[in-house]
């Protein structure tokens, strides 16, 4: 009798679990989206991937119709196909956690469930991350260190299916090493090396208004453009006009060196700087007289 009761309980639990998993009206495992706010809108979700036999064709089909979906992926499948997981992100799709081995969660302890979710999340993070290089704008790391060239980072990223991003800091557009300044990577060099996303300041070395600029591969820029934060952080029209006027000067290198104040000052010869300093010292001495302290040479 006890065996029959146990069997019925197990069968009932299995039936409820199956119904909860397949029925669109079940909310046993959480809320279910049944209707979108916009008429004609549809949420597309795909489970249990990435699958090399199906996912590439599915991605091409979605691309053909300009559609985006959410792919709930299994950790072990991500580890087996990391390039596919990275491609999902590159094409603008969202990724969800569908556990590491797809067990029946109703029979697992909370600790085991956390382990399943954590392992899957780690796999997704490793497969869909990026290689990031950040310019040391106001400090230096010295000793047994070296800079990794952009071309090597790009090659490493391509080998592992990872996008590469570099933050150039001040954003040097014109090479100033000819004026005795240290060699720094320029924006053009980063683009030529194949960096997917380059970020740099619109002011500082660029000489324009305070802003942040993003340049790079078309697929990356389009994805960034569609993100809600792009609208929240966009610059106003006056800043945009000032930035455009500054960038137009860079069409002629010599004009940029003459017309953009920061470049003009950085390109000054030491003799010209000394002449300005002496003229300033004389003007201060004439204006302040004895109030001016001793001049340090």
Describe it for me?
The protein has helices spanning 2-22, 55-64, 75-80, 82-90, 110-128, 150-160, 187-193, 218-226, 228-232, 237-249, 253-259, 261-266, 270-288; strands at 45-49, 70-73, 94-97, 131-134, 164-167, 197-201, 212-216. With 297 residues, the chain is of the alpha/beta class. It has two domains: 43-129, Glycoside hydrolase/deacetylase (TIM Barrel, Alpha-Beta Barrel), CATH 3.20.20.370; 131-271, 3-Layer(aba) Sandwich (Aspartate Aminotransferase, domain 2). The N and C termini lie far apart (104 Å). The model has no long low-confidence stretch (mean pLDDT 85).
- The CATH superfamily label of the largest domain reads Type I PLP-dependent aspartate aminotransferase-like (Major domain)
Work out the radius of gyration: 29 Å
For the largest sheet, list the strands in their spatial order: 4-5-6-7
CATH architecture of the largest domain: 3-Layer(aba) Sandwich
CATH class of the largest domain: Alpha Beta
H/E element sequence? HEHEHHEHEHEHEEHHHHHH
Count of helix runs: 13
Q: What is the number of independent domains?
A: 2
Q: Quick one: overall form?
A: elongated
Unreliable sequence segments:
none
User: Beta-strand percentage?
Assistant: 5-15%
Task: Give the number of DSSP strands.
Answer: 7
Structural class: alpha/beta
The biggest beta sheet reads: 4 strands, mixed
CATH topology of the largest domain: Aspartate Aminotransferase, domain 2
How much helical structure, as a percent, in the residues? 40-55%
Mean pLDDT reading: 85
């Amino acid at each position: 009798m006890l065996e029959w009761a146990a069997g019925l309980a197990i069968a009932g639990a299995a039936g409820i679990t199956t119904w909860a998993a397949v029925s669109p009206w079940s909310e046993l495992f959480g809320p279910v989206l049944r209707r979108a706010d916009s008429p004609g809108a549809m949420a597309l979700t795909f489970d249990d991937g990435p699958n090399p036999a199906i996912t590439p064709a599915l991605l091409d089909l979605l691309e053909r119709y300009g559609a985006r979906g959410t792919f709930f992926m299994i950790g072990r499948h991500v580890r087996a196909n990391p390039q596919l997981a990275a491609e999902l992100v590159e094409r603008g799709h969202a990724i969800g956690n569908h556990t590491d081995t797809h067990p029946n969660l109703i029979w697992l302890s909370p600790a085991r469930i956390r382990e399943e979710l954590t392992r899957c999340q780690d796999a997704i993070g490793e497969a869909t991350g990026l290689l990031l290089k950040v310019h040391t704008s106001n400090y230096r790391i010295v000793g047994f260190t070296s800079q990794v060239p952009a071309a090597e980072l790009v090659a490493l990223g391509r080998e592992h299916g990872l996008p590469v991003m570099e933050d150039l800091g001040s954003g040097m557009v014109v090479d100033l090493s000819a004026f005795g300044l240290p060699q720094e990577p320029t924006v053009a060099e980063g683009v030529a090396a194949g960096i997917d996303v380059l970020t740099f300041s619109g002011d500082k070395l660029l000489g324009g208004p305070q802003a942040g600029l993003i340049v790079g591969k078309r697929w990356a820029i389009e994805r960034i453009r569609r993100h809600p934060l792009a609208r929240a952080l966009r610059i106003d029209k006056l800043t945009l006009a000032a930035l455009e006027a500054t960038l137009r000067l860079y069409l002629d290198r010599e004009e940029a060196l003459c017309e953009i104040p920061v470049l003009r000052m950085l390109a000054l010869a030491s003799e010209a700087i000394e002449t300005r300093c002496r003229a300033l010292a004389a003007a201060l001495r004439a204006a302040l007289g004895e109030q001016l302290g001793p001049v340090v040479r």
